[in-house]
Design brief:
Blueprint: E1 8-10, E2 20-22, H1 25-34, E3 42-46, E4 52-60, E5 65-74, E6 82-87, H2 91-103, E7 108-113, H3 124-138, E8 145-146, E9 150-151, H4 152-157, E10 164-168, E11 175-176, H5 177-180, E12 188-192, H6 200-208, E13 212-216, H7 224-238
Parallel strand pairs: 1-3, 6-7, 6-12, 7-8, 7-9, 10-12, 10-13, 11-13
Antiparallel strand pairs: 2-5, 3-4, 4-5
Helix pairs in contact: 2-3, 2-7
């Protein structure tokens, strides 16, 4: 199979060489009716634990498709220990943030509710599906964890204080990313506010905490979804697996 036509799926059960994997109903439809795979055609599988495997179609009916796991091609590798916390946006923009955060290597993605957050709810199952699809396409070996949707103040009360929390400060009080990059070693998390930024009350709370620091992404005002992806990209370049 050419690289162009490579089909890669997340396996919902553990994989091992010589074993089998029964595709889900949705995966069976995709492989059989969309990609039109036949017996012995190849599929790449990963389970988020044991690495990536090359499999072939062993059995096929209208409702079921069985893949034989032939060999491991990549060992399991975790993404760097960086989290993204972001104030939930309108549905499409939230989808973009989640998808791109997966591609950029965030190990955990946490939607939060700040004072100026306009979105009132999220659908966790929808976001989990977005995470799986983005991991399949980006060739990640692991799946990021999706955190609970909580008010920012409540989340901060139970924050693991060994993890640096870097928040993006639109008021201009934060240091430049490059100036404080050395202080952003793993484990670290980035917090991005909504359109309109954090409230003054939230900024005062963040400034008062021992494990937080403010960072600036320059003089231009970035949209919330752009800021999330810019922060992860900068971190990967300075501190993560891009360097």
């Amino acid at each position: 199979m050419s690289r162009k036509n490579r089909i890669r799926l997340f396996a919902y059960t553990p994989l091992e060489t010589g074993g089998i994997y029964e595709a889900t109903e949705a995966q069976t439809h995709y492989l059989s009716n969309v990609m039109r795979l036949g017996l012995d055609d190849e599929v790449f599988l990963f389970d988020g634990v044991h690495g990536e495997f090359l499999a072939t179609v062993a059995q096929k009916t209208k409702k079921n498709l069985i893949l034989k796991v032939n060999k491991k091609i990549f060992d399991f590798e975790k993404a760097p220990d960086v989290w993204l916390l972001f104030a939930v946006l309108k549905k499409d923009n939230t989808d973009i943030v989640v998808q791109k955060a997966v591609e950029l290597g965030a190990r955990k993605i946490i939607p939060v509710r700040s004072e100026y957050t306009t979105a009132s709810n999220i659908k966790p199952e929808r976001l989990k599906a977005q995470i799986i699809e983005a991991a399949e396409q980006s060739r990640r070996q692991d799946l990021p964890e999706l955190g609970d949707f909580l008010p920012l103040e409540k989340l901060l009360k139970t924050w693991p204080q060994n993890r640096k929390l870097v928040y993006l400060d639109e008021t201009g009080q934060g240091r430049s990313f490059s100036a404080c990059a050395k202080q952003m070693k793993e484990p670290v998390a980035f917090l991005v506010g909504p359109e309109g930024g954090f409230s003054s009350k939230e900024l005062e709370l963040l400034k008062s905490l021992s494990y937080t620091s403010a960072v600036s992404l320059g003089h231009r005002i970035l949209r919330a979804e752009t800021a999330s992806l810019a922060a992860l990209s900068c971190w990967q370049a300075f501190c993560g697996d891009w360097k």
